[in-house]
Structures are given as structure tokens and as C-alpha cells.
């Protein structure tokens, strides 16, 4: 098949949507398909274009048997509601002529990855003019999340944004998303269930696996062997709810057996580091290279997955699959009726979003139950292999594209 993929995030970004779009494209190319990608220069999660790339120039490159076009994009230093919209719109506009040029290539499938939904018109137009099928893959509901989390407030703008979203959803031949709760939201938005599929984010269970011994990172951080390490690894952004984890660390600061480790990059990192500079039970790590990821995840005694209340079921956190594959229990700050809570049954615990005291109490509870932690970790590993293994998920995607 000839497959054209459009999305603002792509390899070599190590986290978030770019990681999954990059791995998907490389897997499809490795299985004999012709794959072209229209994307932006890598900038996430640092919100700064990486060295060797330009924010303002077009660039064509060959990457892992792929043809990749990098299109100009404006990257704000401090992404907020309006600046984030301008950022997404800048890529949608710069990518439009590159997408239209692909018509002569005659792709079989044109797939656009959202966010940003701004890219959907160009992908749909390219598909229709080239005779291809059009597929929209939704990683999170950016419009719903922006208003639920208070990033955008205007009533008129909300009506316009939701109207544009409905229009785009109904134009695509197939719409996929990453969880059952998100598929149910598509149905609620009026989309025919027959045109909706779940394609979850995946984890390479051969790369991420439980270690028999302690992670070598523990010694590098000078953390005692008996310490209980509470790990958050992922985007350090403004909408992750990390303040709850930091508040829980403050509650436990006098209990020397607990150490909190935060790993990643993002727009809130500097602010959070400054806020916690006097706390003795917190360590900060930069984003780790791919080869060190398994050691990082095995550093955890307990993983924490914070979410704000307004984000429930608007997105399935991609970091969760790797947490499960590492064979460690997870504590999530989510309501009991959410899909994350259902997924964690038997392999983790949930506390109310924003409740730092409840999070601290749950950490204390699991810390005192090593047998329970081991059982939860084993169940977590089994669930990751059964539901999120990379080869299984991408084989399902290939089958869907062939259909």
C-alpha cells in the first residue's frame, strides 16, 4: 500500500504522539509498504526546535525507509490557549501545499493524526483528489480538553470549534482513537459506530520488561537500596496535575524511606523545580534516551499517574502502557468510573484527582504491602502483554488499512 501520514509530531521525538506516529510509520515501512510523512521539525516536549532542524524552512529527508517532509512551524516558548492555537494553525497552513503535492503520488490511504484537528481539511482534500481513503486517528480530544481544563473559555469560540470538529469527523471514511471511552465519545458526537475503531497506543514488551535486579539508576541517584521510589515519568506540562504529586511528596517529606523521582521535559518543569528546590525527597531527571528507558521504569517501586479531573476519558495517557509493562503497581489520580480506573483493577489503585492526602496515604499503604505490590506488578505485566503489545496493535492497524 501507499500510505500518506500527516501529523505535527514525529520521530525523533521520544515521548508523546511523535513517538507513536514515528514507530507506526517505521513499522509499516518495515512491512513492505510505501510510506510518506508530512510533519514539523521535532520540538516536543521541550517546546524548542531540536538542534539540526529549522522552524522556518521546508526540508525533505529519508528516515528509516521513509520519505519525510518537515514543514515550518511556530513554536511558542510558553504554550497557552491562544498561543497553542496559533502554533497548531501555523503547521496546518505550511503543510497544506506539501499535502496537495502528494496527489500525483496517488496514495491508497491518507491518515492524519490529531491533534491538531486543523490538519484534517488538508488530509481530507488530498484523499478525495487522489482517490484515496481518508482516515483520522485521534490521540486526544483537544477541543473538549481545552475547555474542560480552562485553557479556552469563550462560548462563541467553543461553538465554532465543536462545529468544525463535527464537520471533520463526518467527512472521514474511518475514525480511530486509542480507548473505548474515547470511542464512546465519538458515538456521542454523532459518528456512526461502524466507522469508529479503537487502536490503542502500544508498548514494546520485549524492550520494556521487569528487571530481576534493582535498576542501575538507583545507585547513580544515590538512593538507598531500601527506599520506596515513587516515579513519575512523562511530559512535565501544565495540564498533567503534577502539583498533586508534589503536594503528596510534601506530606511525606519527613518519612525518609520515600523518594519521589520526576523524569521528563515540558513547559512546567522549570517552575516545578523552583517550587521544590528545598524539598529533600525529590529528584529530577532529564528525558532519558530510549536505551535507558527500561532502567528508568524499573527504578520505580510505585508509578504515579496524575490526571486532572477535567481530563477524565478525554485522553488515555500513553505513558500508562510502559508503566504496566515494567511490572510495577500504578497509583492514578482518577475517578472510579473512568477507563483508566477500570484498566488498573488488580494492578494498581486510584485516588480522587487533586487529593494529595489520599495519594500520600495510598503510597504509604502500598509501601507496607510488598506481597501486594508484587502481585499487582505481575498482573500489570500480563495486562500489558495481552492488550498493548506493539506487534499485535500494529498488525491490527495494518489489517484495518488493507480493508
Question: How would you characterize the overall build of this protein?
Answer:
This protein is α/β, with parallel strands linked by helices and 403 residues long. The protein folds into two domains: 2-199, Glycogen Phosphorylase B (Rossmann fold, 3-Layer(aba) Sandwich); 216-388, Rossmann fold (3-Layer(aba) Sandwich). It has helices at residues 16-30, 81-101, 120-130, 142-148, 155-171, 180-188, 216-220, 242-251, 269-275, 293-297, 319-325, 339-343, 356-367, 370-388, 390-402, and strands at 2-6, 34-39, 59-63, 66-70, 109-114, 133-138, 174-177, 196-198, 228-233, 258-263, 282-285, 302-306, 330-333, 348-351. The strands form two sheets. It has an eight-stranded mixed beta sheet, with helices on both faces. Strand 1, helix 1 (16-30) and strand 2 (34-39) form a beta-alpha-beta unit. The radius of gyration is 21 Å and the shape is globular.
Quick structural gist:
The protein has 403 residues and is α/β, with parallel strands linked by helices. It contains 15 helices and 14 strands.
Strand order of the biggest β-sheet? 3-4-2-1-5-6-7-8
CA radius of gyration is 21 Å
- Beta-strand fraction estimate: 15-25%
Report the uncertain regions. Answer: none
- Class from secondary-structure proportions: alpha/beta
Shape: globular
Largest sheet: 8 strands, mixed
Distance between the termini: 11 Å
Look up the CATH topology of the largest domain: Rossmann fold
The topology string of helices and strands comes to EHEEEHEHEHHEHEHEHEHEHEHEHEHHH
